[in-house]
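User: Run a structure prediction on this.
Assistant: Running it now.
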Amino acid sequence: MLYVLELGLIGLAIAVLPLTWVLIRRDANKYRKLAWVTVFLTLDLIMFGGFTRLTDSGLGCPDWPGCYGTSSPFAAHPEIHAAQTLLPSGPVTFMKAWIEMVHRYFAMAVGVLIIALMVLAWVKRKELKQSPWLATGLFFLVCLQGAFGAWTVTMKLQPVIVTTHLLLALTLLGSLVWLACRQMPPGMVAADPAATRWRWAALAGLGLLVFQIALGGWVSTNYAVLACTDFPTCQGQWIPPMDFGHGFKLWRELGRTAGGEIIPMDALVAIHWVHRTFAVMVVLYLGWLATRLRRHAMLRRPALFLFALLFVQFATGLSNIVFQWPLLNAVAHNGGAAVMLLLLVMLNYRIIAAGRLARQTPVPTPDRAAAPLAGAPTGSA
């Protein structure tokens, strides 16, 4: 299995670049810098994963972790050429193979960075003054994510596997953001007891967004984006004929019902309609939440970003329908959802941290012995 070692070395070589950049930066807290760099690259990886799916490159190399038992499409040239000759517009072409393998290379690099975060968390646990178990959990999470990446290929893009792969990627991103937020300097979060009243509302917003992303992933993995090509109606009706039973049957092959038949259009309409309808609820709720949270100084910036991003996300989602699913808009829509998740995790962390600081900050009490009595003379006669 020499090619597996070669793949590991490729991932390590890519990871060396951000690791070197962190080392040469004049930053007192290099662990914090590494955490945020890993967040940034994980976000990029999620967007590139969306690009891989949207270009139908998920089976560009139909085995895992390499490409036809090799470490690159260069070495797999004869096999890819044979597959492309047989089916020129099929799942295996040179372009799709390279897209798929670049995605895997960068996934390995992110894995290396997460291993570095875990090792440093244990080595510097006294200096960091925080438990290393979150970073350790990230290591196990990225291993689970890798397993679902393998199953995505070996189970031929089964929708529930691909959607779970997406949700695990976003869980990884959110956990990395939480880890990075824990490294913020003390001045970034202030004791604000009033902010804690929004704790459950912010958590509910995060839950609604995650559910909406799951619905969006289900739309994408079932290729149901164009099941409704008009707006605000769907197929000319507010409530078109829909087949929820087949549409939301989780364990089935791509494009098939659980019984093996071709999935009916009404099932795809149901998938699309539910995602579109629930999006309205999410936009209204998160818009309301952002307007409330911006009143707190330490929450203002991420809340304003969230509010602005809601409009961008709505516009990219609408353009997917109006302009027949253009690739750039679809990738931007996927990336926008990931950034919204990032912002909501940041808001939740700051609200919880503000409450913790408020509980730890002693409330000053007036010194009654030193205070003059009301009405008593303060000067000598």
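The chain has two domains: 1-183, 190-359.
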